[in-house]
Design a protein that fits this description.
With 42 residues, this protein is mainly α. The protein has one domain (5-41). The chain contains two helices and no strands. It has helices at residues 5-21, 25-41.
Length: 42
């Protein structure tokens, strides 16, 4: 089913909270993957 915008934001917040429990490598990977993701979506 499609999530409402609010539900989607809440899910993202939950995921970010979970990720913060792990070490900063995940953030590092995410930050460095973003340019590739942006490119793919063009």
């Amino acid at each position: 089913k499609n999530l409402s915008l609010i539900e989607a934001h809440n899910k993202i917040d939950d995921i970010e909270t979970e990720l913060k429990k792990y070490d900063s490598k995940i953030s590092y990977i995410t930050i460095h993957m973003c340019p590739y993701i942006e490119e793919e979506n063009k």
